């Protein structure tokens, strides 16, 4: 290879070769090409270059961190706490986000027309429940004053009298002494805190002794604590209870006429009725 050829190759490498017509016929054909077609070439080139630059600029902008904070999604009216953003990152302006703060007092609730709601000054205070009114079984709680009514004898209540427990008729016309005798303080069971003991106005407890339900003062013995503890079992009728002896399981307070005893459970309708009690508001 000659030095002249080497220089020619170097020049070819550095400067790309121009595409020139190979023959005179090709040159003449280019000259005969319509002017309009030749004039469109620069426009097409410019449009292509512009498209490439625009695409690159858009990609660069999306890759940069946003300078402005993005609004949080707005919750759909039917979607609870879920937010909604459409596929283009736009939040629907027609959907209003629900309030996150719930009313904490009556004044924060939606207003009511004055004509349909009496004023606070005209609202009467809530009257206390009348004595002897039935309560839910859940109202039998330690520390409360309660009366016990025979479930199938609405006017007959358990009372303490002369060391024995029995049923007595109690009404609004009854004397204060009778009303107080039919009222007990519910306490946690002396032998089992999951059960109950019933304390009379004089401090005596309902307890069984020789199978009879009595009303005696606590002598501090373990036997007394067990005898004076009764466990609540759900009655067969709504809002009624059975009272099972803590230390004689399977034995329940049972009525024999107006007297209260503990008797072994019998699966008879009559026994269920005679062993069911209703918890009521206190008489005394």
TrEMBL record:
Pfam entry (one): AbfB
InterPro entries, sorted: AbfB_ABD (IPR007934), AbfB_ABD_sf (IPR036195)
GO BP, sorted A to Z: L-arabinose metabolic process
Residue ranges of domain Alpha-L-arabinofuranosidase B arabinose-binding in the record: 147-279
Keywords: Membrane, Transmembrane, Transmembrane helix
UniProt region (Disordered), positions on chain: 95-132
GO molecular function: alpha-L-arabinofuranosidase activity
Transmembrane intervals: 42-63
SUPFAM superfamilies for this protein: AbfB domain
Signal peptide (UniProt feature, chain positions): none
Extent of Low complexity compositional bias: 106-132
Protein name (record): Alpha-L-arabinofuranosidase B arabinose-binding domain-containing protein
Organism: Catellatospora citrea
């Amino acid at each position: 290879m000659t030095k002249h050829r080497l220089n020619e190759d170097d020049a070819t490498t550095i400067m790309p070769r121009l595409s020139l017509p190979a023959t005179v016929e090709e040159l003449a054909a280019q000259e005969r090409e319509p002017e309009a077609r030749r004039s469109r070439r620069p426009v097409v080139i410019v449009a292509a270059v512009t498209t490439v630059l625009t695409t690159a600029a858009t990609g660069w902008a999306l890759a940069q961190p946003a300078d402005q904070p993005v609004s949080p999604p707005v919750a759909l009216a039917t979607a609870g706490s879920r937010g909604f953003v459409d596929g283009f990152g736009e939040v629907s302006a027609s959907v209003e986000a629900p309030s996150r703060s719930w009313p904490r007092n009556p004044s924060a609730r939606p207003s009511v027309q004055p004509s349909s709601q009496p004023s606070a000054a005209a609202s009467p205070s809530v009257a206390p429940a009348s004595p002897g009114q039935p309560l839910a079984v859940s109202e039998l709680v330690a520390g409360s004053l309660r009366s016990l009514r025979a479930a199938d004898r609405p006017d007959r209540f358990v009372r303490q009298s002369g060391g024995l427990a029995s049923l007595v008729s109690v009404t609004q016309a009854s004397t204060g002494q009778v009303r107080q005798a039919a009222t007990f303080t519910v306490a946690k069971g002396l032998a089992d805190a999951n059960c109950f003991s019933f304390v009379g106005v004089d401090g005596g407890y309902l307890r069984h002794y020789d199978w009879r339900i009595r009303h005696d003062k606590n002598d501090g013995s373990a036997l007394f604590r067990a005898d004076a503890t009764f466990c609540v079992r759900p009655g067969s009728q709504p809002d009624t209870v059975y009272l099972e002896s803590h230390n004689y399981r399977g034995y329940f307070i049972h009525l024999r006429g107006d007297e209260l005893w503990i008797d072994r459970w019998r699966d008879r309708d009559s026994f269920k009725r005679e062993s069911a009690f209703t918890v009521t508001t206190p008489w005394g």
